[in-house]
Amino acid sequence: MSATSPETFGTARPARSALPLLRRLLALDAAVTAANAVAYLALSGLLGRLLGVGDGLLLGAGAFLLLYGAGVGLLASRPVPPAPWVRVVVEGNLLWALAGAAVLALGVLEPSAAGWVWIPLQAAVVAALAVAQHLALRAVLRGPGRS
Questions:
Q1: 3-state secondary structure of 143
Q2: How would you class 28 by CB atoms within 10 Å of its CB: exposed for 0-12, middle for 13-18, buried for 19 or more?
Q3: Cα separation of 51 and 83, whole Å?
Q4: Residues 6+ apart with CB under 8 A from 73
Q5: How far apart are CA 23 and CA 20, in angstroms?
Q6: In tens digits, what is the pLDDT along the chain, a chain of 147 residues?
Q7: What is the pLDDT, as a whole number, of residue 15?
Q8: Which of 55, 62, 91, 118 has a Cα at 20 to 30 A from 126?
Q9: How far apart are the first and last CA of the chain?
């Protein structure tokens, strides 16, 4: 099976012009995720106090984000990222964004003022990235000459 076989992208051949955008979006996602992971792991106490959340929560989130970012980075490094795995990233990003909004709306966390800014801001950025990745994947799947 080649990287551009129908098994990789359903019935469409990947649109070469959309692939670089998709790969850049995945690489951006991996870099931002890894940066957040390192910050949460290295500065959990300081950031926990600043954001008004437990440092244990930040350590757990940092560990998860480090693994997730590495996986997204691996996907971004592929010449043609497999569509099913790109969908997993898009859905994972949407779930992360929804979880960020839900913990505030449901009162699960009682963050500081900085936390009330940071949590929805990072959720909005992750949601926007998910939408951009979805649209890029759709363009790749549509292929050249399709509408």
A1: coil
A2: middle
A3: 36
A4: 26, 27, 30, 31, 34
A5: 5
A6: 444 444 455 445 555 689 999 999 999 999 999 999 999 999 999 999 999 999 999 999 999 999 999 999 999 999 999 999 999 999 999 999 999 999 999 999 999 999 999 999 999 999 999 999 999 999 999 876 544
A7: 56
A8: 55
A9: 26
Angle at alpha carbon of residue 67, lines to 62 and 68, rounded to 5°: 95
Cα pseudo-dihedral 2, 136, 27, 58, rounded to 10: -120
Q: For the chain, count helices (H), then strands (E).
A: 6, 0
Name the CA radius of gyration of the chain, rounded: 17
**Confidence at residue 8, expressed as pLDDT on a 0 to 100 scale:** 52
- Token couple for 107: 């009162």
Q: Give pLDDT, residue 143.
A: 77
Residue pointed to by tokens 């998709």:
22
